[in-house]
Design a protein that fits this description.
The complex is a heterodimer of chains A (356) and B (331). With 356 residues, chain A is mainly beta. Chain A has 2 domains: 2-211, no CATH class; 227-304, Immunoglobulins (Immunoglobulin-like). Chain A has helices at residues 60-68, 70-79, 149-153, 320-347, and strands at 2-5, 22-35, 39-49, 94-105, 114-127, 134-138, 141-147, 161-167, 170-177, 186-187, 191-195, 205-211, 227-233, 238-243, 250-258, 261-269, 274-279, 286-293, 296-304. The longest helix of chain A has 28 residues, at 320-347. Mean pLDDT of chain A is 85; it is low at 6-22 and 344-356. Chain B is an alpha+beta fold and 331 residues long. Chain B has a domain at 120-329: C8orf32 fold (Roll), CATH 3.10.620. Classes of the chains: A mainly beta (356), B alpha+beta (331). At the A-B interface, α3, β15 and β16 of A face β2, β4, α2, α6 and β12 of B.
């Protein structure tokens, strides 16, 4: 259930709730179907209502507000499967108003479910092999976390009812977090149903181990095709130049692993751009340099630190004998000039007053 | 005999608990503690039921956290907490259950003891953090869009440096010199907080916008960054209050009597999380942290920040008024 405020919540300076008067509430029911190819069909059903439980389904003002919130709701849905919705692969979202659907929730925390007829439905297919919440276990078996993104965004919100179906994907095991939250209300041969009467009872994460024959983990796709142009070591610092020869800009991670440590830096590279990354305090005889973008390792290279060592960029010290020789030359020149000057004074005719 | 043993164990536990508040926050290498203060902090929040029916509600109360430079204790809470819980970013909060009849009002009262250490970085660390930390804390989010082209260009132009501390410092200098302070009643996110003027850029907003812009640009530069939220006190003793019905019309005058605050932190290898509160004295305070801060939580991974940065969060009820009274002394 989600409280929709009349004005956006202000997180500023603890003044957050200054303007937050509730306008209406939304009952949130979800259906997630895990398929054999490693994707999941997600359908979100929304039904708006007042604090005292009166349905606002079809109310023109609320409907306008709901329609303008579709992008936000789509984001919430993607955030159920990833920390990084930008990189999660999915089909376009479809949004429609369905009169025959039923949405349920506990309206005023009374412990009783109310049924609402009609729902605004938002659906898409999400490819779990690009999800940051998927952990490949072995072969076609993986663990997937489904987050209650509504709780994550606003601690007092939660998904009222969520049904998980397994069609083509085999459920190997399941759990939920935190452990004090309630488990599923119904367990079927190919489905699990959670009914959450309030937020503390609702899990923050639903975790499944699945076997899907078509699943092949990809991870976050690369943003750029970066390469190492050069690596120079000056005795303590490793200077690495990374280049992006590709047509797209994006982030790359440059990592150095050396005796007793590792360092990494993320850099943004525009198309055709190169950037120097400096790693201070690198020690040992050799190091390993890696370049990643997304979850892909783009380049891995061993660096012989002794061989790549360049003279440190220090000011060249003056050679002491050279200084002594210069000083001696200056002294000789000074003596010579002094003696010549004195002779010239002696040779010049004395000028008497009045004899100009 | 068994009763005696139990009694002595209980006495031992009590004495250990009594000793706990005396422990100063631990210190870190390369960091000098500049002050130690222990505050008694009392909060009162007035909640109202605007509906025509009786409501049993859950109220989420953010708590002062335990950090390297802060030790916090809940002395009392009325009504008592139903449960303590931890959010995705590791912040501990309390859940209180209340019941209010139609139109009724009620108070939630909390008392904390918080020991805070101010500190100063003594040496600037030079190494970059490991990949796992960089990956985790440089991600894009709803308020920290690291793909914003303008912010990418600006970050690399004004603050790219070989060492993370140098980059963090350059960035703080650039940001603090461009703040155009204005109390904001909705969070803009870094995308909408930077305005182009004729000759330069300005960061328009309050502490939230300043923190969001700094964190975004730090993440763009590859420096792990997050925000800390809580209170910035004006001295050792005082009172701050917030009337929700007048807050909007008060505008910038709000900060004369309210000290809710949010500020950035950067992760420096070998030191850990370092505070960068530029609005405390309007300086590039990278690793210069006053003991007037009380941390209630961090925003790290959540895509849309944290609702717990609010003073207290009821579900059905509304907050009408909030106040904190604090008194600090030597630990």
């Amino acid at each position: 259930m989600r409280r929709v405020a009349a004005l956006a919540l202000c997180l500023a300076a603890f003044a957050a709730l200054a303007a937050a008067q509730p306008n209406y509430w939304v009952a949130l029911n979800y259906r997630v179907t895990f398929l054999g190819d490693g994707s999941a069909l997600v359908e979100a059903l929304f039904h708006p209502f007042t604090t005292d439980g009166r349905s606002l389904f079809g109310d023109p003002e609320v409907e306008r507000d709901m329609n303008s919130s579709v992008a936000g709701f789509a984001n919430y849905t993607l955030l159920m499967f990833s920390d990084n919705p930008r990189l999660l692969k999915h089909t376009p979202f479809l949004y429609e108003k369905r009169l025959h659907e039923t949405v349920v929730c506990d309206v005023a925390n009374t412990g009783r479910l109310s049924e609402f007829k009609g729902a605004y439905v938002l659906g898409a297919r999400v490819y779990l092999n690009t999800s940051s919440y998927v952990k490949p276990l072995n072969g076609s078996t993986f663990e997937v976390k489904v987050r209650d993104s509504f709780t994550s965004v606003d601690v007092r919100s939660w998904i009222d009812v969520i049904e998980f179906r397994f069609e083509g994907a085999k459920l190997v095991g399941y759990r939920w977090e935190p452990p004090f939250a309630r488990g599923p209300a119904e367990v079927g041969s190919n489905y699990l149903l959670w009914v959450n009467f309030n937020e503390p009872q609702a899990p923050d994460f639903y975790v499944f181990t699945l076997e899907a024959p078509g699943f092949a983990y990809v991870g976050e796709p690369p943003e750029v095709n970066a390469t190492i142009s050069s690596a120079e070591y000056d005795g303590s610092q490793l200077r690495v130049v990374v280049a992006n020869p590709g047509p797209a800009g994006g982030y790359a991670y440059v990592r150095v692993i050396y005796e007793g440590g590792e360092q990494a830096r993320k850099v943004y590279l525009k198309p055709g751009e190169s950037r120097e990354v400096v790693f201070p305090g690198v020690q040992g005889a050799s190091a390993v340099l890696e370049v990643y973008s997304g979850d892909s390792l783009l380049e891995k290279r061993s660096v012989n630190l002794a061989a790549t060592q360049r003279e440190p960029r220090l000011p060249v010290p003056l050679y002491p004998p050279l200084i002594a020789l210069s000083l001696a030359a200056v002294a000789v020149a000074a003596c010579y000039l002094l003696r010549r000057g004195r002779r010239a004074v002696e040779a010049a005719p004395r000028q008497e007053p009045g004899t100009v | 005999m068994r009763a005696l043993r139990a009694l002595s164990a209980f006495a031992l536990l009590l004495s250990a608990l009594a000793l706990l508040p005396a422990l100063a926050p631990s210190e870190r290498a390369g960091v000098a503690v500049t002050a130690n203060v222990t505050y008694t902090l009392v909060g009162r929040f007035l909640l109202a039921n605007p509906s025509n029916s009786t409501v049993r509600d859950f109220v989420y109360v953010p708590l002062p956290q335990n950090t390297t430079f802060q030790r916090s204790y809940v002395v009392s809470m009325d009504p008592p907490p139903l449960r303590y819980a931890v959010d995705e970013d590791g912040n501990v909060y309390a859940i209180v259950q209340v019941e209010a009849g139609p139109g009724a009002k009620l108070w939630v009262r909390v008392e904390y003891r918080v020991s805070v250490a101010g500190y100063r970085l003594e040496s600037a660390p030079r190494a970059w953090p490991p990949l796992g930390i960089v990956r985790k804390y440089t991600r894009s989010s709803g308020y920290w869009n690291v793909y914003n082209g303008t912010l990418i260009d600006l970050a690399y132009r004004v603050a790219y440096a070989d060492a993370p501390y140098d980059a963090a410092r350059k960035l703080a200098e650039w940001v603090v010199n461009r703040v155009k302070y204005r109390v904001q009643f909705s969070r803009l996110g870094s995308d909408h907080a930077v305005a182009r003027s004729l000759l330069d850029y300005a960061i328009v907003g309050d502490c939230v916008e300043v923190a969001d812009v700094y964190v975004t640009m730090a993440r763009i530069l590859g420096i792990p960054a997050r925000t800390a939220y809580g209170l910035l006190l004006t001295g050792r003793e005082g009172r701050m209050w917030l009337n929700m019905s007048t807050a909007a019309e008060e505008g910038d005058r709000l900060i004369e009597h309210w000290g809710g605050h949010i500020w950035p932190q950067v992760y420096l290898a070998g030191v850990g999380w370092v505070d960068v509160d530029m609005l405390d004295g309007m300086q590039a305070n990278v690793g210069a942290y006053s003991e007037r801060h009380i941390v209630f939580g961090f925003e790290e991974m959540k895509y849309f920040g944290s609702a717990l940065s609010s003073v207290c969060v009821p579900s059905y009820l509304t907050v009408q008024y909030a106040e904190y009274e604090y008194r600090g002394g030597s630990p």
